Amino acid sequence: MAALLVLAGVAAYVLRKAAENGPAPPPAEFFLLSLPDADGNVHPLSGLRGKALVVNFWATWCVPCVAELPELDKLQAEFAERGVEIVGIATESPERVRLFRDERHLRLTLLAGGYDSLSIARNLGDLQGVLPYTAVFSVDGRLLHTKVGALEPGQLRTWLLADADANRFGS
Question: Which domains does the chain show, CATH number per domain?
Fold first, then answer.
């Protein structure tokens, strides 16, 4: 019992320190990964380095994930000219993601990370392992925003406009 109390105390301390210091920039390992897209084409994530980046972790079975994807798709088209890249990383297979994308006529980049997506999300700050999870990064890799759970309507657009106006994208 004493060991559990000590472990709980250590975990609380680590979480408190993480909250005080804020999440770290994406680890270099993130950009070393390669994931298949919905068509099975492999995308090295190194191609995302140096871009204003929104990474959204989702699943086809996750109701709030599915609800926010149309807005993400719309925002990708709207902010592409400003150098913003929005990427969805699903917890499923490329085939399942392709069927989902085609049914909903989505155009944003959807990658299939399988169950490894959850550990990738954890490395980007999703310590709770909740879907959806969204992280917004500047071009120099600074973490600007995170959201555990569903984005509020208009929340991402507000962040992106404010970040662009404040030149936080680094461009």
Answer: 26-165 (3.40.30.10)
